C-alpha cells in the first residue's frame, strides 16, 4: 500500500514538472506526497498576488492536482479550469462525447473524464494507468493546450476588468483579430521580398554551413519586423530545390521572378519565441520550404492537422536544429503551435 502512495506522489511530481517546464508556470502550495493536500499550478507572474485566494476563486490558478482513493481505486486527479460550453455538447454525464472530442482512450480502465461545476474539467488516473500516464501524449497535449489558451485569455480578461472594469471580451477578441491580420500582412510582404532575393542569389549561391548564429539587430532593408533576413530564407528555398518539405510532389505554379516551382519560407521554431533561445532562430536549419497550402495549414489548420505536419518537419530537422544550438523537443514545438479555436 505504501508503495502505491510513493508511485502516485512520484507521478504527480512528474506531471507538475512537465506542466511548469512547458507552459512557463509555477507550482503553488501543495505537497506531492500528501494524501489530502492539493498541488496548484499557477501563473508565476501573479503567484504572489493571488496566493491567499482559494482554488476556484483564484483566476491565476489553472490546474489543481490531488491524490484520490475511492471505489475506482488509488491514483490522482487533474482538475483543469476551463469554460466548457463553447466547445463541447452535452451535460456533465455525457462522458462519451468528451472522449470523442479529445480522442481520449475511453476503452482503458483507469482513465476517467468528467465536467464539474460547469467550468472545471477533471481527468482522473487510477490503478495500473497511474504508472503509464504521460501528459506529453498527443491526445492529452492537445487538451492541455486548448485549456491553457482559455486560461490565459480568462486571466487577461480578469486582470483588465479588475483594473478598468471597461474592457469587454468582445473588444479583446477584436484586438486579437487585428493582430492576426497585421501578422498575415507582414508575412505576405516578407514572402514577396524573399522571391526577389531568390532571383538575386540563384546564380551566385554558395554552400551553406549549418552552425549556431548569434542574434543580430535588425537591418532596415533586409530584415522584417520579426528580425527575419530575406537572404537566409531565400537560401533555404534553394537548398530545398523549390520543393515542399511536407511532400516533394506538391506542385504549385511557376514563379514569374525565378522561373521555378513557387514555394514559401517558414520558420519551424517561430521567431516570436526567440527569447526562449540563446542563439538566432533565423538560420537555414530552422527555415523550411513549404507550398502555400501547407504553409497556410500550419498557421491556420486544425490542431491535429498541424501536429501531422510538425511531426514530418521536426523529424527531418531536429539534427540540423541541434547543430545550431536550437535543441527543442517535439512536445515543446507543438505547444508553440497549438491554438484555442
The count of domains is 2
| Cross-sheet strand order for the largest sheet | 1-2-3-4-6-5
Q: Percent helix among the residues?
A: 40-55%
Major beta sheet, specifics?
6 strands, antiparallel
Q: How much strand? A: 5-15%
Mean pLDDT: 79
- Class inferred from helices and paired strands: alpha+beta
Terminal Cα separation, in Å?
Answer: 43 Å
**Low-confidence regions:** 86-92, 218-225
Shape: elongated
Count the DSSP helices. Answer: 10
- Indicate the radius of gyration in whole angstroms: 23 Å
Strand tally is: 8
What does this protein structure show overall?
With 341 residues, the chain is an alpha+beta fold. The chain folds into 2 domains: 2-164, no CATH class; 170-337, no CATH class. It contains 10 helices and 8 strands. It has helices at 2-22, 47-50, 95-102, 129-132, 138-164, 169-201, 230-239, 292-300, 303-323, 330-337, and strands at 26-27, 39-42, 61-70, 73-81, 111-116, 120-126, 264-267, 287-290. The strands form 2 sheets. It has a 6-stranded antiparallel β-sheet. Strands 7-8 form a two-stranded antiparallel ribbon.
What is the topological layout?
Blueprint: H1 2-22, E1 26-27, E2 39-42, H2 47-50, E3 61-70, E4 73-81, H3 95-102, E5 111-116, E6 120-126, H4 129-132, H5 138-164, H6 169-201, H7 230-239, E7 264-267, E8 287-290, H8 292-300, H9 303-323, H10 330-337
Antiparallel strand pairs: 1-2, 2-3, 3-4, 4-6, 5-6, 7-8
Amino acid at each position: 500500500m505504501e508503495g502505491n502512495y510513493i508511485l502516485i506522489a512520484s507521478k504527480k511530481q512528474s506531471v507538475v514538472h512537465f506542466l511548469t517546464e512547458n507552459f512557463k508556470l509555477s507550482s503553488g502550495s501543495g505537497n506531492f506526497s500528501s494524501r489530502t493536500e492539493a498541488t496548484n499550478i499557477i501563473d508565476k507572474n501573479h503567484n504572489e498576488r493571488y496566493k491567499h485566494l482559494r482554488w476556484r476563486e483564484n483566476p491565476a490558478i489553472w490546474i489543481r492536482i490531488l491524490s484520490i482513493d475511492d471505489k475506482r481505486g488509488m491514483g490522482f486527479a487533474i482538475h483543469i479550469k476551463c469554460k466548457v460550453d463553447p466547445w463541447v455538447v452535452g451535460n456533465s454525464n455525457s462522458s462519451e462525447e468528451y472522449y470523442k472530442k479529445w480522442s481520449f482512450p475511453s476503452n482503458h480502465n483507469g482513465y476517467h473524464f468528467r465536467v464539474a461545476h460547469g467550468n472545471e474539467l477533471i481527468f482522473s488516473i487510477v490503478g495500473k494507468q497511474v504508472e503509464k500516464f504521460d501528459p506529453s501524449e498527443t491526445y492529452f497535449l492537445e487538451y492541455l493546450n486548448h485549456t491553457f489558451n482559455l486560461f490565459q485569455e480568462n486571466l487577461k480578461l480578469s486582470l483588465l476588468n479588475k483594473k478598468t472594469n471597461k474592457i469587454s471580451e468582445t473588444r479583446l477578441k477584436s484586438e486579437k483579430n487585428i493582430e492576426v491580420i497585421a501578422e498575415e500582412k507582414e508575412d505576405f510582404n516578407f514572402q514577396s521580398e524573399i522571391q526577389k532575393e531568390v532571383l538575386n542569389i540563384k546564380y551566385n549561391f554558395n554552400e551553406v554551413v549549418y552552425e549556431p548564429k548569434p542574434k543580430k539587430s535588425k537591418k532596415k532593408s533586409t530584415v522584417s519586423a520579426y528580425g527575419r533576413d530575406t537572404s537566409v530564407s531565400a537560401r533555404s528555398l534553394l537548398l530545398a530545390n523549390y520543393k515542399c518539405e511536407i511532400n516533394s510532389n506538391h506542385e504549385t505554379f511557376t514563379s514569374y521572378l525565378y522561373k521555378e516551382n513557387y514555394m514559401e519560407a517558414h520558420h519551424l521554431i517561430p521567431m516570436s519565441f526567440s527569447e526562449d533561445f540563446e542563439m538566432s532562430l533565423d538560420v537555414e536549419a530552422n527555415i523550411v520550404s513549404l507550398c502555400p497550402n501547407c504553409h497556410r495549414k500550419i498557421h491556420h489548420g486544425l490542431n491535429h492537422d498541424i501536429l501531422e505536419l510538425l511531426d514530418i518537419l521536426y523529424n527531418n530537422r531536429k539534427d540540423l536544429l541541434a547543430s545550431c544550438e536550437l535543441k527543442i523537443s517535439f512536445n515543446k514545438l507543438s505547444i508553440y503551435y497549438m491554438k484555442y479555436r
